Amino acid sequence: MKTVIIHGQSHKGSTYHIARILAEKIGFDIVEFFLPRDFGEFCLGCTRCFMESEDKCPHHEKLSPIVDALDQADVIILASPVYIYHVTGPMKAFLDHLGFRWMVHRPAESMFSKQGVCISTAAGGGTKSTNKDMADSLFQWGVGKIYKYGCNVRATKWDTVSEKKRRDIERKTTALAKTIRDSAGHITPGPKTKGLFSIMRAVGGLSSTDKLYWKKKGWTGKERPWN
């Protein structure tokens, strides 16, 4: 089983450590990307990924290694500390570039059998809205099962996180890792995901590129990405 972590920051704080702890408990191969170190471009709003092809994006060359890793992974971990109750700027910029993978455009067939985890930390609050930022994209990509773990560490540095909080993190990541391992190979998207797919199937994509994609997949007929 392969896990890919997209870190919404380049330094190794509490969010990094929790994501890494979980990935190591899941086991097997771990691939990591750090934003903005590994990708820090802002979407230009040119719509070329929607209207033509994702490889027409001006940032395609930099983005493609991350997209390839996402496609090869069994588990996707999106990790971001809370920045004014939302994800970091680099994480937002990265997710903006994956808009072409949203259900209304060209979702990847493999996403429907993957598991995704949203991890956020804060000294105070805001983890719920931050995790929602990331979960929205995972859902729209078609990821079959999505988990959220928000942790109010009550510290600005990992070294100052209390022992009590660390024990709680250990307990929760152990339980989550077990759930993910036990579910591997048995993921089927839920009713909400299938419902959105049905709506988008009726639309059949927005651009001519999208419509051709859906038709080639057979999704406008009887084929489904989770079969």
Describe this structure in words.
The longest helix has 21 residues, at 163-183. It is built from 8 helices and 5 strands; from the N terminus they run βαβααβαβαβααα. The chain has helices at residues 14-26, 48-51, 60-72, 89-96, 127-141, 163-183, 191-203, 208-217, and strands spanning 2-7, 29-34, 75-81, 115-122, 145-152. The mean pLDDT is 96. Strands 2-1-3-4-5 form a 5-stranded parallel sheet, sandwiched between helices. The protein is α/β, with parallel strands linked by helices and 227 residues long. The protein starts with a strand and ends in a 10-residue tail after the last helix. It has a single domain (2-187), classed as Flavodoxin domain (Rossmann fold, 3-Layer(aba) Sandwich). 43% of the residues lie in helices and 15% in strands. It is globular. Helix 1 runs parallel beside helix 6 (163-183). Helix 4 links the parallel strand 3 (75-81) and strand 4.
Secondary-structure map:
Layout: E1 2-7, H1 14-26, E2 29-34, H2 48-51, H3 60-72, E3 75-81, H4 89-96, E4 115-122, H5 127-141, E5 145-152, H6 163-183, H7 191-203, H8 208-217
Parallel strand pairs: 1-2, 1-3, 3-4, 4-5
Helix pairs in contact: 1-6
Helix content: 40-55%
Report the strand count. 5
Architecture per CATH nomenclature, i.e. the level-2 architecture = 3-Layer(aba) Sandwich
- Look at the helices and sheets and give the structural class: alpha/beta
Oligomer: single chain
Low-confidence segments, given as residue ranges, are none
Indicate the radius of gyration in whole angstroms: 18 Å
Largest sheet: 5 strands, parallel
> What's the CATH superfamily, by name?
Flavodoxin domain
Write the CATH fold name. Rossmann fold
Mean pLDDT metric = 96
The 3D shape can be described as: globular
Query: How much of the sequence is in beta strands?
Result: 15-25%
What's the helix-strand series? EHEHHEHEHEHHH
CATH class: Alpha Beta
The tally of structural domains comes to 1
User: How far apart lie the N and C ends?
Assistant: 20 Å
Spatial strand order of the main sheet: 2-1-3-4-5
Number of helices: 8
